[in-house]
Amino acid sequence: MRVFVDSDVVVSSLISSTGAANFLINHIEIEPVISIHSITELQIVVQRIHVETGKIKLLIKNRFEVIEITKDVKVLKQSYEKFVTDKNDALIVTGAHSANVSYLISYNLKHFKIEAIKNKLDILVLTPALFLQFLRSQQ
Amino acid sequence: MLNTIDTTKAYTPEQVAQMLQLSKNTVYELIGRGEIVAKKIGKLYRIPAPSISFFFTGLDYDLYVSDQEDRKQLSSIENEIAAVRTDL
Fold first, then answer.
1. Residue A9 near residue A110 (C-beta atoms within 8 A)
2. Which of A12, A73, B54, B84 could, after both became Cys, cross-link A21 (CB 3.0–4.6 A)?
3. Which residues are B45's β-sheet partners?
4. CB contact under 8 A, B63 and A40
């Protein structure tokens, strides 16, 4: 199942091997997706928290589908800002919508207008653990 | 949702029935089917809090623990991401 993954989940998966983010990223039934916009921010963030940048490059290469988004960032932020409380998070919703997924996985639920995203874009926003719980309920 | 589960606590089937608004017989049936994991001590059952974690947190106990594990570092990660997103 393809799911779009916010950067907080990707970074968390690198920091703790026993956290829900790591379980999600390495789950056999899950195909994690990020956008090209996430890559730059991921590389800067891991440097700032003193994680080897090689680890994030390897993780992305081995596990992630990276989708290209060619439209202008400013235009995208304006188009999707109605779905977030902070305009700077709009590119995550853009990525999930462009990837045509049904699930956006993030720890930062309070920054997303979850009802609007569900009703207008047909995307559910869930934490890693809640999504894993959902997968169990489907078995 | 509770922030923590007291893993040292155990409940009687009657207490769990009351908490979950189920009949006592249903709780015994759930124990019999393994849906609620209980320990039989003599003729009595005791149900450890993690066995009914889902009803408190919406998560099975192992997922609850893994969720909490990530949250230990989350605020510093969120702060860095917010700073980077502002700059980009």
1. no
2. A12
3. B40
4. no
Report ipTM for this prediction: 0.92
Domain ranges of chain B: 10-87
User: Does the beta carbon of A40 lie under 8 angstroms from any beta carbon of chain B?
Assistant: yes
The backbone torsions φ and ψ at residue A49, rounded to the nearest 5 degrees and listed phi first, read: -100, 15
B8 confidence band (pLDDT: 50, 70, 90)? confident
Q: What is the pLDDT of residues A101-126, one digit of tens each?
A: 999 999 999 999 999 999 999 999 99
In 3D space, the residue among A16, A6, A11, A22 whose CA is nearest the CA of residue A48 turns out to be A11
Q: What's the total number of domains in chain A?
A: 1
pLDDT digits (tens, 9 = 90+) for A29-53: 999 999 999 999 999 999 999 998 8
Residues B77, B56, A102, A104: what is their CA dihedral angle, to the nearest 10 degrees?
-10
Tokens found for residue B15:
């207490």
CB of A43 within 8 Å of a chain B CB? The answer is no
